[in-house]
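A quick aside before the break. I want you to see a complete sequence-to-structure record at least once, exactly as it would be stored in a machine-readable document. Don't worry about memorizing anything.
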Amino acid sequence: TGKYEKYQDYLYELVSELKPNRILEVGFNAGHSACCFLNAYPNTELVSFDICRHGTEQPGVEALQNNGFNITLIEGDSVETIPSYLEENSDKFDFIFIDGCHRGEHPYYDIINTIPYLSINGIVVVDDYGIGGVAPSYKRVDWNKYEEQKVPNIEKRIKVLKKLQ
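That is the input. The structure line, written in tokens, reads:
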């Protein structure tokens, strides 16, 4: 996120305006997006899922926690960890950011496993729309209860939707 200035600004403004109580993030890596979200609205609780293969995840989470942010990192394959976590913690999220594995069926499962937990009027962002299996996965989902939001001209292809009902 840090190398895409317009994209980072857009996400920051999106979260600033929404003021979400809870954020669910798929794909933490080094925490660039999480840092953007938490700085945009410091009062939020962020739950992030990551397979944790890069070695950047734990130091990133600790840096954010040490600065007073409320963030939890769930380690493991999101296809397994998200359903397991949400079975025990069924509270809704106001903002969902999907930027996990881009290959195969992973994006599809990340979408369908998370969007039932999006609050009415909540926002879901599907990142990296043009990469790997993201677009085909996105197209398989029934988005009838969502309204696609206009995205400004930024460096990345994303889909942004608001849940209507």
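Two observations worth writing down. The longest strand covers residues 118-126. Strands lie at 22-26, 45-50, 70-75, 93-98, 118-126, 146-148, 159-163. We'll return to this after the break.
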